[in-house]
Amino acid sequence: ANSGAGISLNKNSSMTMNSGNIIDNTARNGQGGGIYAETTNTFNMYSGNITNNHAVWGGGICINNTSLNFTMYGGSISDNNVSGNKNSNGGGIYVYQANSVTFGGTAKVTGNTLDDESESANNLYLTSGKYVTLGTEDYEPTSMKIGVTLANGTGTIVQAGTDYDYFVDDYGIDYFAAFKSSVSNTSVRTI
What we know:
By secondary structure, the protein is mainly beta. The protein is built from no helices and 22 strands. The protein has strands at residues 7-9, 13-17, 21-23, 35-37, 40-45, 49-51, 54-55, 61-64, 69-72, 76-78, 81-82, 93-97, 100-103, 108-110, 113-114, 120-121, 124-126, 133-134, 145-150, 167-169, 175-178, 187-190. Strand 21 and strand 22 form a beta hairpin. The relative contact order is 0.13.
C-alpha cells in the first residue's frame, strides 16, 4: 500500500481504538505504515499497540487533515520506523495537519526511529506551527512519555501548562516548558 498500509481512515470516518494491535505493516512509498488519517474527523486511542510499522512519513500514524481531532490517552506507539526520503520523519507519529492533537493518561510514544546510519530516535514529529494539548479531568497525564522532534529544532510543544517530564527531546535533551495563558505566549526551550 502507498498510504495507510494497516488502516486508511477516509471519507469523514471516525475511529476509536480500545485494544488490539496494528503491527507489521509497510506503506512502501507513502504515509502511515500503521494508520493514515486523511479525511477523518476523530481518532481516539485509549489502549492497544501500534508497533513495527514502516513508511516514508509516519511509521506508526500519519495525521494529514486540518479538521482531525486526535487524542491518545493510553496504549503504546513503539518500534515503528521511517525511511526512503531525505525528509522522512515521524517514526511514531507524523503530524502534518490537524485541528487538535491531545495526549494524556498513560500514553506512550517511544522507541520509534528514523532509518539512518545511527537509527536516530524519531517519535512524534510536529511540523512547523503544530503543538499538542494535554488531557484534562479523567485523562490528565499520569505516566505519559512522549518523544518529540520539532521541525524547527525548538518551538512550542504544548498549548498550555505542563510538567516537562512528559516530553523528551528525541535528541536526548529534556524539554523545559515555560507557559502562559495563550498559545502565542507559550515558549518551549531545550535545556
